[in-house]
Amino acid sequence: MALERLPSSANPADVAAAIGRDGYAIVERVVAPEVLDRARAELQPHLDATPFGPDDFAGRRTRRTGGLIARSATCRDIVMHPLVLGAVGQVLGHVTSFQLHLTQVIAIGPGEPAQTIHRDQWAFDFFPFPKGYEVQCNTIWAMTDFTDANGATRIVPGSHRFEDRREFTYDQTEPAEMPAGSVLFYTGALYHGAGANRSDRVRSGLNVTYSVSWLRQEENQYLSVPAELARTLPDELLRLMGYARGAYALGYVDDLRDPLDALRGVVKNDIGLGDLDAATARVRQRAG
Fold it and tell me: Which residues, in sequence order, are bridge partners of residue 105?
């Protein structure tokens, strides 16, 4: 079964529609491969220093390098890519806000076997979220070409609507093959896993994940990005990283201060919680 693909001209609505229908979307050649080459060059010392995974799931021939906001200016632009933020905003549009969940380069070495097929949202202590209620929207940017032979991510199309705790064999999955510079979108409920790398080269992907703001982030952005560096970053990126109230009242600092004001040492008189009227209206809309 050939997986459907969207051209680089696709807009956020096109991507969100595909994700809602199939649980995934592949958008080809969103950026030039040279953009991801630049990110790799910025990250190279950290990539070289990253150890292999400690178990079969993480991959004993796979390196997972995080902390990308602090380590790569190019990755900051990728995290904020308009197509991605627009699509994620629609997929997770049933909540007040979404946040950056993790940033990671996944480099799968030759000889790595296939990863167990899983759902990323199982990271939340295997909580059984209601079917159809999405809490994550994930992206994997192809830093190298993704092929069946080199470990392209394997997915089960439509499985975001399946029951929880399902098990799948390798033959029940499809490889998300795509040229460098392309992006695979998928929800936290989609069953997927890294493919086996049967080639003689490393397959590298840039994994950037977003989640609803009332869940804990997998990568702790407040410690991954030192405060002195965070203070130099744009407000929009900082709020996406978590320096914002989540939902109505989550994440304020001491006397109801906005977390971004607290980071920057700004003193304001208009302290408070979030927009209660908007939050109430959203609840009523869901109920009605």
Answer: 65, 206
- Strand arrangement of the beta sheet that strand 174-175 belongs to: 174-175, 154-155, 192-193
Cα gap 131→121, rounded to integer Å: 12
Residue with token string 């203070």: 231
pLDDT tens per residue, range 155-211: 999 999 999 999 999 999 999 999 999 999 999 999 999 999 999 999 999 999 999
Which CATH superfamily includes the segment(s) 12-221?
Answer: q2cbj1_9rhob like domain (2.60.120.620)
DSSP 259: H
Token pair for residue 262?
């607290």
d(CA 83, CA 29): 12
Return the structure tokens found at 77.
Answer: 């632009």
pLDDT for 282 equals: 65
- What span, in angstroms and rounded, lies between the C-alpha atoms of 130 and 151? 31
b/e per residue 116-151 (b: at least 16 CB within 10 A): ebbbbbebbeeeebeeeebbbbbbbbbbbbbbebbb
Q: Where in the chain is the domain with CATH 2.60.120.620?
A: 12-221
User: Residue 273: which pLDDT band, with cuts at 50, 70 and 90?
Assistant: confident
Centre a 10 Å sphere on the Cβ of residue 85 and count the other Cβ atoms it contains.
16
